[in-house]
Structures are given as C-alpha cells and as structure tokens.
Write a structure and sequence with these properties.
Methane Monooxygenase Hydroxylase, Chain G, domain 1; 2-enoyl-CoA Hydratase, Chain A, domain 1; 7-stranded mixed beta sheet; 3-stranded mixed beta sheet; 12 strands
C-alpha cells in the first residue's frame, strides 16, 4: 500500500484500508459467534489473532504514514495506537475499552485486547522506515520534561514523586522512589523515571547521570536503599500494568534513552545516532531484580555494595525480560544468559560471575565516595570524548536495525505472554499476589 501524502489529514486512511478493515471486522464477528457456541475457544482465539495480524501485516505501515503525515510528525507509541483505534475500533481497542478492562482489576479477567496493540506495534516496527521513525519519536523528550527543564536547570533539584533528581556539581543523581514496593516498577514510577532521565539529558550543567534506589519501608530492608525489585507483580496480577505505556514504551523510551540519549534532530532518516547523550552510572544496593537488572545492561558503569545480587526471573514468571535477551549475552555470554533467563540463576556480586555485570564492589559505607570517584572517572577525558566513545561502542554492539527488529519480535511475543493463562499461574505460585494488597 503506498504511503499517504504528507498533506493528508490525521487518520485519513486510504479506501483500501477501510475496505479491508470492514471485511476483517465481519470475519471477526463470525468467529465471535462461533466462540459463543463452541467449546474450542482457544483455537478460535488463535484464528482471530491471525486474522488481525493479517490485516496489520498488510496495512500497518500505511496507517502509520497517515497518522504521522508520511513519517514527518513524531508521535509516542501510545498516542499512535489510540489514534489508530479511534478510526479502527473493531481492530484496535480504544482508550475507553482499555480503561474498562483495567477497571476489572484482574489480569485474568481481561479479554486480550492488548494483544491487538502488540500486533500493530510489531508490524510498524518491522517496517524499516516506519520502525526507525517510531524509535526516533520515542527518543524525544517527554512533554513533562520539556515543561520542567528550566526549573531543573535553575534549582538543580526536582521531586517527581516516584523519582527524584538532584544535581551536585556536574553530576545529576536520579533516585527511584517507590518505597512501599522495594522500588518496583509500575505505570506511575516508569513515567516519572523517564521524565527524570530526560531532565538529566537536557540539562547543560550535568555531565554524568547516576541511577540509584532510594530508602524503602519493607520490614526486611527498612532504612536501607534498594535498587529495584523489577515489575510490580501485584499490579500485574490486578491488571494495573499497561501493555503499551509500560511494557512497550518503557523499553522504547526510558531504557533506550539511557542507552542512546535523546533524539533532538528534526530529521528521522539517519541510521547514525545523532543523539544528545551522557554517560550513566548505576549504584546497586541490596539487589537489582528483573527490570532493575535490565537497567544495568545499558549502564556505562555499575557499582554494587558487597552482598548484592542481580537476577532476571521473568521466564519463571512467564514473560520476556525486556531487552535483556538482546543485551545480557554481550555481558555474560549466551550460555550464562540462558541460565539466568530460563532457570533464574542469580549473579552474586562478590564472585567473578557477578563481575561480568558489575564493575566495582564496595562496602556500604564506601558507596557515596565510590559514586563520586567513578562518575568523575567517566568524563576524565572530557564529556565529548566520553559521549563519542559510548556512541562508537554502541554502534558496533547494538545498531538501530538490530534494536528495531528485536522490538518488533518483543512487541508481538510479549503481547501473547501477558495474556497467557500460564503467566497468572506462575505469578500465583511464585508471588502469591492474591494475599497482597495494592500499594
């Protein structure tokens, strides 16, 4: 399907798209009637997913063109998905439909509407031109960061609720602050952390970013800092983790910005990474589990306190651990990565195994001094040198093309994982969220 003209109004989809959407909708309606009277519901659901994917495979790029004025208008993924849903509600869930499912407060009660979002995103990302444009759009600063950038530059400190930032000299310290949940990640904390990262990258007075967990309230760790417990499984169990805004935008936005920086150009066709970026250091106290460990894979330097550990239990729980499947093998080797992902074998920092992820281990009382020393060491040859070298290292290890294709696969497979009955069974067995309350 040819791209729409850049002068086409938003959502002015070609006749062929609307015709095929109507045909697909009728075929889906027939399958839904069969599902209501047929015991073979899983088979019918698979047929419905295949039918929708057939449509997105044919039309996702043309829909993207229409909604971005021919790849000239940047849109975050959530904005894009819901704009498409407004025109194609029979194929993509609207915000209202997702809100109704969220209100059920059980992941198991959802009908799998988010699978359609994953399929659409996957086929946009699979298209080289549209996928590259979307990646660049997701690397732009958030609207909230643009609103607060002058405030942070002027005062050097800002409290975003679930994340705090403070500039000391030329080092910006970002603290994850979800104390009731061991700094676990949820919709609110991920949005705050992405804004915090944007503010550091936009700040011309900061040369290095430091990511650290704040003090927590858990009885076992009360009064101690904890890096991160990863995704909040209680929120997931109760259906409060958004597939697009959390699962997909976290890795296309927050995590990718730590690795690549901000896209500040108005051009979207370049394959080279002309980004505004800074080196990042992580300080790990207690543990970095799941999403916390994923963050370490994109850091330029990792310091941990003695006794800490890293782990990726996502496979045990039933889903893909973000982009760790792409990045962790570069650090630890493919066999060790499989051991971590499939068998939840942790990395203990006080061992050679742990040092494949961590650069330095220090006593708890030495952490502050180690952060200062290592942060200054990252830019001892100058900020330009540090940024240039991290760009050059990254291009060889994870070019945009590799990341784009990974995210296409991830969007598709993770959507199925998040609505697999095995996911809830795994979480109930390992986490017992039904005995916990929502924080």
């Amino acid at each position: 399907m040819p791209a729409e003209s850049s002068s086409a109004p938003e959502g002015d989809f070609a006749d062929a798209i609307m015709r095929d959407a109507a045909i697909t909708a009728r075929r889906l309606a027939a399958l839904e009637e069969r599902q209501a009277r047929d015991d073979a519901a899983p088979i019918i659901r698979a047929e419905m997913s295949a039918l929708k994917e057939e449509f997105f495979r044919s039309h996702a790029a043309a829909i993207y063109d229409a909604l971005t004025e021919g790849c000239t208008k940047p849109r975050r993924l959530a904005d894009l998905v819901y704009a498409a849903a407004n025109r194609l509600p029979q194929l993509l869930p609207t915000r209202a439909a997702i809100a109704r499912e969220r209100a059920l407060r059980r992941q198991s009660a959802k009908r799998g509407l988010e699978i359609n979002q994953g399929l659409f995103a996957a086929h946009v990302l699979a298209d080289e031109r549209c996928g590259l444009h979307l990646i660049h759009a997701m690397l732009r600063p958030t609207a909230e960061a643009e609103r607060l950038r002058r405030q942070y530059r002027r005062h050097g400190t800002i409290d975003l609720g679930a994340a705090r930032i403070e500039r000391r000299d030329t080092i910006s310290h970002v603290t994850m602050a979800n104390p009731e949940c061991l700094n676990a990640e949820d919709d609110r904390s991920v949005a705050a952390l992405e804004t915090a990262i944007d503010l550091v990258l936009l700040d011309d007075r900061s040369e290095v970013g430091v990511l650290r967990g704040g003090l927590v309230q858990h009885r076992k760790y009360a009064g101690r800092r904890v890096f991160s417990a990863g995704i909040n499984l209680t929120h997931l169990y109760y259906g409060q983790i958004s597939f697009v805004e959390f699962i997909l935008e976290r890795d296309l936005g927050l995590v990718n910005k730590l690795l690549r920086g901000l896209w500040v150009s108005h051009s979207y066709g370049e394959q080279f990474e002309d980004t505004l970026e800074k080196p990042w250091l992580a300080a790990v106290e207690a543990f970095a589990i799941g999403g916390g460990c994923q963050l370490l894979c994109v850091m330029d330097r990792v310091i941990a306190e003695t006794g800490a550990y890293f782990s990726l239990p996502a496979s045990k729980e039933g889903f893909i651990p973000g982009v760790a499947n792409l990045r962790l093998p570069r650090l630890v080797g493919i066999r060790r990565a499989r051991q971590a992902i499939f068998f939840d074998e942790p990395f203990l920092v006080d061992t050679p195994d742990g040092m494949t992820i961590c650069d330095e281990v220090v006593a708890p009382e030495e952490m502050d001094a180690a952060i200062e020393r290592n942060a200054k060491g990252l830019v001892r040859a100058g900020l330009l040198s540090a940024v240039s070298n991290r760009k050059a290292l990254r291009v060889g290890q994870e070019p945009l093309s590799a990341f784009r294709l990974y995210m296409a696969t991830y969007a598709r497979q993770q959507a199925f994982c998040f609505h697999d009955p095995g996911l809830l069974a795994n979480i109930e067995r390992s986490w017992q969220p039904q005995t916990r309350r929502m924080a």
